[in-house]
Amino acid sequence: LLRRNDDANRFPVGILPLGRTNTIGNTLFSKGDGVFRVKQLIEASMAIIKGNTMWKDAMKIEPIEEEEDAVFGKPIFALCSLEWGAFRDVMSKKHKYWLYGSLREYASYVFNGYRQSLNWHCKGVIKYSPPCDGCSNCVMKRPQVKRKWAFFLPSTTLAEDNSPANLVNNKCDSTKEVCFQTSDFRIMTPNLQNTQTTPALSIGIGKYNYNYAEFVSEGWDRVRDKSIKNAILARSVMLFPKEHFGATTIDIDREEYEAKPIKITLLPKVVRLFCSDSNNYEK
């Protein structure tokens, strides 16, 4: 929907909180187990009938360098996060420990924390711009389709003059550069980590050297709380990974891609989703 120019994103999308990796579904409806799990599914279905909707942010991910074998032939869009590193690798293996039931995530860290096959060496450079409420630099004007009956419609010139696309913010175009070497790199949208004020991407750069006990301890903490501490806030990020031992893998909304130079841009309030009564839905 976001690749189109005809405002198709104004139509709401219904998401059922099914599957183990459906992160956005669990943010729209209260998560639970057993009977509460059934209640969650009923609540998600009733939201479509009631017509409760709310706007969610997304991030646009596009290649910086065009290559013949590029993974991202076209820009892709994500609602939740981008992850790279050892913690991401462990979470991709948790399905192997289904025997442990609800403890499988904890077991994943216990049995994989010592493995050298994990991506312990994430090295690269990021260039990011500060958060912005919207200005002429970051708000894209969509081409207007002229129709034969357009002269019968009321003029919208005044509304266009007050739109963010006509505002000027000199700081919006500035960038900062950070070189990093870590075992944990993450970018989250406000859907998972609310920045409260100006919409922004939350960038987390973790430690580089972990011993076994530290890695397992932090992994267990992350099972309970996945938020990024001391996050760097940004409107857009250019990520330039540097290969350490051949090709590496990044995770975008639980889908695996080869790590290559990409640009991540926050698109505030561009996806309309059905939600529960407890959310601040549109009436």
From TrEMBL:
Subcellular location: Mitochondrion inner membrane; Mitochondrion intermembrane space
GO biological process, alphabetically ordered: glycerolipid metabolic process
Single Gene Ontology MF annotation: acylglycerol kinase activity
Cellular component aspect of the GO annotation: mitochondrial inner membrane; mitochondrial intermembrane space
EC number(s) on file: 2.7.1.138, 2.7.1.94
Annotated catalysed reactions: 1-(5Z,8Z,11Z,14Z-eicosatetraenoyl)-sn-glycerol + ATP = 1-(5Z,8Z,11Z,14Z-eicosatetraenoyl)-sn-glycero-3-phosphate + ADP + H(+); an N-acylsphing-4-enine + ATP = an N-acylsphing-4-enine 1-phosphate + ADP + H(+); 2-(5Z,8Z,11Z,14Z-eicosatetraenoyl)-glycerol + ATP = 2-(5Z,8Z,11Z,14Z-eicosatetraenoyl)-sn-glycero-3-phosphate + ADP + H(+); a 1-acyl-sn-glycerol + ATP = a 1-acyl-sn-glycero-3-phosphate + ADP + H(+)
Membrane topology (UniProt): Peripheral membrane protein
DAGKc domain residues: 1-65
Chief place where the protein resides: mitochondrion
UniProt keywords, alphabetically: Membrane, Mitochondrion, Mitochondrion inner membrane
Signal peptide limits: none
Broad EC category: transferase
Keyword Membrane: yes
Protein's UniProt keywords contain Mitochondrion: yes
SUPFAM superfamilies tied to this protein: NAD kinase/diacylglycerol kinase-like
Top-rank taxon: Eukaryota
Homology family: Belongs to the AGK family.
Protein's name in the database: Acylglycerol kinase, mitochondrial
Native species: Spodoptera frugiperda
